[in-house]
């Protein structure tokens, strides 16, 4: 049953992910592709959608996937609501339980040598997962692989143009103007550039 699969899969993601929402992206990607819940391009679009909507990215992604799969069930719109609820609860449940336990015992055991060493080992793994996700998504967006017929790598000229323009604007703001490039501004700017470039067929 799809609802049980959603619960178990997102429970596993929430249970074995370190590094916050971005650390969850590799596991979410593997899960949705493995189960055939969406394609690579749909997954990339889902990340963009999750970024521009309020709330943590991993929870937004779980809600979206749950709604998508639940809606495809015999329950229709109610199934979409139920699927999103189940997937969202499943992905936050492990963190809620762990933080509840930590809040009780961390003050007592947090300074122990073994606990400190374990956390030191987890931190670089979380960073590596986030960096690998960024590189995979960057390559998929800028240089998508065409699997229809013979396998070939293409160049997404629109995405490359927007990426280079955003990078240039970021450098001007931070290095020339010596100001902080606020994430909200950069997200809105990227969305605006995407609309403009595609609307006027600039690339």
Protein described:
The protein is mainly alpha-helical. It folds into two domains: 2-146, no CATH class; 157-199, no CATH class. The chain contains eight helices and two strands. Strands 1-2 form a two-stranded antiparallel ribbon. Strand 1 (145-146) and strand 2 form a beta hairpin. Helix 1 (2-15) packs antiparallel against helix 4, helix 2 (20-34) packs across helix 6 (113-142) and helix 7 packs antiparallel against helix 8 (183-199). The chain starts with a helix and ends with a helix. The model has no long low-confidence stretch (mean pLDDT 81).
Q: Can you give the helix content as a percent range? A: over 70%
Query: What's the rounded overall pLDDT mean?
Result: 81
What order do the helices and strands follow?
A: HHHHHHEEHH
Low-confidence stretches: none
Structural class: mainly alpha
Strands of the biggest beta sheet: in what spatial order? 1-2
Give a quick rundown of the structure.
This protein has eight helices and two strands.
Q: How are the elements arranged and paired?
A:
Elements: H1 2-15, H2 20-34, H3 40-52, H4 57-71, H5 77-109, H6 113-142, E1 145-146, E2 152-153, H7 157-176, H8 183-199
Antiparallel strand pairs: 1-2
Helix pairs in contact: 1-2, 1-4, 1-5, 2-4, 2-6, 3-4, 4-5, 7-8
